[in-house]
Please model this.
Amino acid sequence: MITIDQYSLAALPIEMHFNDTHLSQGTGFVWSGPDRSFLITNWHNVSGRNPNTGKHLSPTAAEPNRLRVWFNAKGEMGSKLGKFVALRTEAGEPNWFVHPQHGKNVDVVALPLTSFPDVEMYPINKMENTNLQLSVGMDVYVLGYPYGLGGAGFPVWKRGSFATEPEISPAVQLHMFIDTASRPGMSGSPVIRRSWSTHLLEGNSISMGAATGTRFVGVYSGRMAAADPLDAQLGVAWPASLVSEIVSGQKRDDL
Model:
């Protein structure tokens, strides 16, 4: 019998479209709110712009107006169903929510979803979550689709490690740095920490017995820009606490 990790079901491939034109690809995941579900991904995925400069990511200055989200098909493990989700209202206003205080300076958005009877959402905040210790140098995994939707329908688990002190984010520095070499298509990926058998918890206590322990760490948004081809290969990740603040704040973008 094949066993699939529940977190492999959380990460979803997404495609950015302007009408019927495919622009780019990325990753997202579902978050369960009090009255509806949300797709969590990066601001630059839904806006088509660099959050630091405001410049268009596409050489044609095209901006997406809808996403195709490849959800897990209900009752068919590994099968995906593509559903289009509008990014803007008929008046052209953004449907997505940004951070209530920092706006697009946090490269994460929450896009409200309608329910689909033929898909399973697998919200990441409803999955087993252990209060694992987070310390600089520890391994993390970025769960995404660097090559788009593969034949198996599951994400790549890209190993990395905390390159900065995670506990200073977001209070001192909004984002964290992850030491990993990622590829296009992984923007918007969930970042998790995983341990096996013996688990170091916050406060330096030890837990034993459970086969695995997993903690949702945050949202990946790609590599730090660098002109040098021999750069340090640092990726940017946004702490998990910012996601819940975006969902609870429900502040629409004013782009």
The radius of gyration is 18 Å. Residues 240-249 form the longest helix (10 residues). The longest strand covers residues 206-223. Residues 127-240 form a domain with the Thrombin, subunit H fold (CATH 2.40.10.10).
